[in-house]
Specification:
The relative contact order is 0.25. The protein has a single domain, classed as YbaK protein (Alpha-Beta Complex). It is of the alpha/beta class. The protein starts with a helix and ends with a strand.
């Protein structure tokens, strides 16, 4: 395990998460790659995407089957304009690289939105801090672990 995934694993344990971090033999930097390795539907992969709303980072945990409609999400949550964070902004907000961002284990709490689409899966998989690690969880647990706001991320 990398230092990032070890930190995420420790954070998950401290939060009482039920799943354990799984490390793959090859990188899984995309939802499709992860779903292929896990043998699950791509929609059951919880992508951790970092955006900027106004001047603040916004973490959106979305189903691998969706693209986030930033205009729709900003209107729905009454947020300022949302734009995708660049890799430096992602690292500053999360301490993790794009493609391996976990929903937890960040230097400071992030405002988080959790895609309602993920609720249809009994088990979802989320990144664990690097390109080789993920952990299983449920939708309800993901919302609890992150303190996230359940919301539709696309109309």
């Amino acid at each position: 395990m990398s230092p990032q995934s070890e930190h995420v694993a420790a954070t998950l344990r401290s939060l009482g998460a039920t799943g354990r971090v799984h490390t793959f033999d090859q990188e899984v930097p995309t939802a499709a790659a992860a779903a292929d390795q896990l043998g699950c539907d791509v929609g059951a992969i919880a992508n951790s995407l970092v955006f900027v709303a106004g001047d603040e980072p916004l973490l959106v945990l979305t189903s691998g089957a969706h693209r986030v409609d930033t205009r729709y999400l900003a209107q729905t949550l009454a947020l300022p304009k949302i734009r995708r964070a660049d890799p430096d902004q992602v690292f500053a907000a999360t301490g993790q690289q794009v493609g391996g961002v976990a929903p937890v284990g960040h230097p400071a709490p992030l405002r988080t939105v959790v895609d309602l689409w993920l609720e249809k899966y009994d088990q979802v998989w989320a990144g664990a801090g690097d390109h080789l690690s993920m952990f299983p969880t449920s939708y309800a647990e993901l919302v609890r672990l992150t303190g996230g706001t359940p919301a539709q991320v696309t109309p």
